[in-house]
User: Which sequence fits this backbone?
């Protein structure tokens, strides 16, 4: 879509005479050209690493040259020798296995078992029940009789290693709540179409499972079902089968209770139908199952590694599966385990990603480390103060370390598994990007609402920034509790910088309620999504303005999409003494209308008054300042009716606002070219009093 550009001054006093920055036609040209201006300007930003053999003896990579040509290099990890190749190697990339025999991919799901007399049988689902077929004489008979069309048995049948035991489950379906949206302008068609999908919302019934076991080693009634006692897994949110114990004594499952305050690892005994707790996570707020659900089981030693925040920080624990007790903490301290790269069970060592364990460094920087399973010999394997991503060789003896920061171009190194650097592979060249005038965002740290907790973020300024002028401040917010969002690695294009080119100082920070700090830091979001970390954002922006006087705190705007849309609207409802304008897209303005999985994780179950208290829609009468809403009519992530219902509440409250409905637009339409242009127009109009676009 093309727009004719005009700049009509709507105020009688020129902004420049007040030492206030104002957008120029050149700024708008740079804004529109910015995505293409910075695209592909960094050489070797994403280097392709390919291992030549399964033993990790050699790998090759390609390196783009300034003249556009590509060179190919072969590297021998043991010596660090590098050889330039005449052409691209033809061998296929070796499969990369993240090491260790963890018994994840065991053979426990074979649908073949032997009864007490050694006769092989096949198991399958027929007429909603579990059936078996004698492979010798081909006779068939049902094993269960209670399955029905409305509550069938799943074909997810688990047979033990000794082929003597079987566990299956019956599924009781939850409510069929559908999302129905109308596509007004289907491609090439005149008439609208109705689109529908299952979309459960908070409070809806979810699927539950009822387990049944068979022990074919019994001499009497070997095909008689044993109903599993469910007293340890009531009010199910989800039951997930993990694997059989190596001795076939029990099936390991994970149980997440509705409301996400109890999470258990259980062992189900097929002979008795009894279940026991192997490890339990409990919280008065929530157990984060979105990002902290790692486990690794070692069959021969009957041990399991799990993640837990029981200490107030996310760490790893070693569990004795025989006793059902924690043997020891593998990691501990006021820092977090971000993820597990792989577990070397034979050498009893875990290779893990960690955050915040090195003083004097951004706590969101991710590092690779190793630690013995008894908690000893913890060692960082990456060095640079940066965000690290690792690719292991197929034999797990070497790894490629790619690291960067928002202002540090990506660097690739070859290291041995003990962290010893063998070779500098390549460093990205950003000179062509810098020649465009590109500047990285500036990191900034300030205390949050409590005056004690450090809040981390970044600041984007216009390329032609003049410290003697005043600039409106725009808060780019997304406070979804599942992660952190201020950039920590290099990206050549960032939408915030594009907006800054029109004469704004744009910020992004991670306030309380977001992830990967302490459990207490994260818990601020519980039943409190309207908070969005906004008190921390305000404190952080005020502190930044003390350092940078060009930030005009009389003109502060905010924008965000999805959960960020809710955050942006919340700013104009509960913090409108500070924020003056907001652009919100695809927002979850009332969590009662959003996805059950997302909302109940942070808002809890059952649906209570906190849902009302956090609803933007229920508090539409509090709105002050300028607001624009943008939504795609085909958003199947957040129900578009959430936006329309909020708009309706604003109309009833007599509030002035803009509503933009994008025909055919999906959940991500606020970040489309059209969406970013409308956002720029909105903020230029309300903070500069200038018309940015016209159809003339």
Assistant:
């Amino acid at each position: 879509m093309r727009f004719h550009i005009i700049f009509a001054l709507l105020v009688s006093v020129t902004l420049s005479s007040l030492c206030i920055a104002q957008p120029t036609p050149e700024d708008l040209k740079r804004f529109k050209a910015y995505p293409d201006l910075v695209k592909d300007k960094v050489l070797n930003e994403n280097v392709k690493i390919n291992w030549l053999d399964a033993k990790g003896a050699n790998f090759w990579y390609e390196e783009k040259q300034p003249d556009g040509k590509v060179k190919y290099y072969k590297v021998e990890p043991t010596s660090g020798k590098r050889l330039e190749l005449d052409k691209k190697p033809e061998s296929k990339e070796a499969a990369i296995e993240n090491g260790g025999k963890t018994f994840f991919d065991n053979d426990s799901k074979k649908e073949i078992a032997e009864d007490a007399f050694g006769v092989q049988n096949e198991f399958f689902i027929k007429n909603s029940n579990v059936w078996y077929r004698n492979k010798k004489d081909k006779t068939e008979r049902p094993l269960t009789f209670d399955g029905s069309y409305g509550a069938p048995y799943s074909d997810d049948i688990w047979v033990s290693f000794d082929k003597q035991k079987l566990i299956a489950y019956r599924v009781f379906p939850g409510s069929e709540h559908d999302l129905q949206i109308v596509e007004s302008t289907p491609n090439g068609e005149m008439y609208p179409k109705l689109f529908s999908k299952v979309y459960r919302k908070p409070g809806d019934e979810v699927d539950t499972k009822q387990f049944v076991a068979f022990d074919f080693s019994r001499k009497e009634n070997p095909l008689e079902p044993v109903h599993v006692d469910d007293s340890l897994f009531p009010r199910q949110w989800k039951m997930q089968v993990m694997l059989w114990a190596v001795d076939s004594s029990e099936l390991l499952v994970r149980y997440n209770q509705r409301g996400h305050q109890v999470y258990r690892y259980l062992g189900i005994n097929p002979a008795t139908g009894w279940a026991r707790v192997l490890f339990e996570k409990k919280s008065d707020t929530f157990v984060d199952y979105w990002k902290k659900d790692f486990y690794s089981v070692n069959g021969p030693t009957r041990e399991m590694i799990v993640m837990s925040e029981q200490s107030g920080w996310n760490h790893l624990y070693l569990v004795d599966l025989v006793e059902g007790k924690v043997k020891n903490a593998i990691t501990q301290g006021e820092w977090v385990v971000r993820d597990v790269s792989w577990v070397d069970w034979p050498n009893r060592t875990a290779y893990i990603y960690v955050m915040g364990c090195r003083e004097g460094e951004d706590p969101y920087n991710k590092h690779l480390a190793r630690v013995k399973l008894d908690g000893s010999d913890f060692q960082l394997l990456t060095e640079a103060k940066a965000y690290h991503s690792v690719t292991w060789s197929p034999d797990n003896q070497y790894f490629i370390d790619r690291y960067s920061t928002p202002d540090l171009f990506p660097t690739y190194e070859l290291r041995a598994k003990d962290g010893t650097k063998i070779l500098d592979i390549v460093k990205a060249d950003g000179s062509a990007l810098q020649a465009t005038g590109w500047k990285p965002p500036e990191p900034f740290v300030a205390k949050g609402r409590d005056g004690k907790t450090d809040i981390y973020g970044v600041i984007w300024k216009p390329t032609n920034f003049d410290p003697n002028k005043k600039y409106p401040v725009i808060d780019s917010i997304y406070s979804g509790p599942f992660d952190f969002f201020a950039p920590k690695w290099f990206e050549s294009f960032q939408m915030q910088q594009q907006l800054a080119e029109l004469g704004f100082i744009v910020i992004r920070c991670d306030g309380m309620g977001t992830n990967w700090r302490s459990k207490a830091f994260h818990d601020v979001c519980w039943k409190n999504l309207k908070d969005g970390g906004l008190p921390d954002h305000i404190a952080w922006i005020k502190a930044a303005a003390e350092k940078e006087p060009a930030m005009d705190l009389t003109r502060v705007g905010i924008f965000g999409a999805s959960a960020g849309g809710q955050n942006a609207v919340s700013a104009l409802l509960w913090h409108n003494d500070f924020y003056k304008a907001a652009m919100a897209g695809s927002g979850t303005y009332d969590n009662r209308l959003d996805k059950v999985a997302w909302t109940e994780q942070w808002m809890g179950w059952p649906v209570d008054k906190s849902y009302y208290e956090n609803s933007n829609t229920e508090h539409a009468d509090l709105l002050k300042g300028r607001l624009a809403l943008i939504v795609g009519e085909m958003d199947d992530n957040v129900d578009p009716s959430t936006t329309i219902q909020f708009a309706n509440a604003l109309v009833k409250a007599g509030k002035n606002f803009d509503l933009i409905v994008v025909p055919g637009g999906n959940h991500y339409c606020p970040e489309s070219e059209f969406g970013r242009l409308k956002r720029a127009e909105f903020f230029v109009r309300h903070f500069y009093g200038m018309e940015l676009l016209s159809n003339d």
Summary: Residues 213 and 226 are 5 Å apart (CA to CA). The chain is about 15% helix and 35% strand.
